[in-house]
Design goal:
The chain has helices spanning 12-29, 54-65, 86-95, 110-115, 133-150, 180-192, 220-226, 248-255, 259-263, 285-288, 295-314; strands at residues 43-48, 69-74, 100-105, 121-127, 169-173, 195-199, 215-217, 229-232, 270-272. It has 319 residues and is of the alpha/beta class. It has eleven helices and nine strands. The structure holds N-carbamoyl-L-aspartate.
Amino acid sequence: MRHLLSAGDLSLAEITSILNIAEEMHTIQGRPIKKLPTLRGRTVINMFFEDSTRTRTSFEMAGKWMSADTINVTGKGSSTSKGESLRDTMLTLDAMGTDCFVIRHGSSGAVAQAAGWVKAHVVNAGDGTHEHPTQALLDAFAMRRHFRSAEGGQSRTMEPGDNGFEGKTIAIVGDLLHSRVVRSNVLLQRTLGSKVILVAPPTLLPTGVEQWGCEVTSDFDAALEASDIVMMLRVQRERMQGGFFPTAREYTELYGLTPERLARLRPGAAICHPGPMNRGLEISSEAADAANSLILDQVTAGVSVRMSVLYHLLGGSPE
Ligand code: NCD
């Protein structure tokens, strides 16, 4: 694997290998001393041109726990604010001897473009409304652990044909239009073999969504009753110009995971949200903090999965 740009680029064997190594990395998280020598001498630059809490921090932790030298560059503090182009910034940092760039950028396609300019490996940490592949991987990791424990088993490494997603239904609900998380999840879950139901008001459906190979509906209640995982997405107000729904109250009424809907979840079903959450809008506090909420498991998974991704890109012998 040279870059990780899209969840659609990963084969079933690659996904399984990333999730299995993440399972090993997960054990490190529970130790008092969280350090492996794996990436000693390797340099990872996190370049975040958009705000982030969990993605940026977890990539930094992932690199540090594997002994890589990690450096953070943001749009504001770098020469891009002096008018330097993204290409010149990338070529400059690449020329210093960087081994891997982890990039978040507000423009869809910018990360793939950057990958074409540099010698280093590139990981897409979110590009505009396009993709966020490590989020879909960490979601899959948290779900896989949930399915396994619901069946009474221990978490363990799995075979490509035995990840536990076959026959499972995942509802992804909310602001699909602005969500890179949904795009990466649809691509990843297609390879993993689950059924995905997309739920949104017609104004928040992306153009061409009917070609994504998913069931698409605006009936949240029907989808809820059919789903093993209900993944709520944040209403991305910062990407909205104009009104996409009449009032916040109406949105919550029709598309929010309210306490009433929480009570109607299938037995054994679990709740996901990539964060950050708008509590009281797309998700109630009762649902966010429920026993069957995987939201903090997703955060924990973020570090293990990103360790595994960096290991897959950088851990082998240098190319
Ligand atoms: C998401 C993102 O930035 O795409 N958050 C995250 O990475 N955990 C989703 C969001 O911003 O709503």
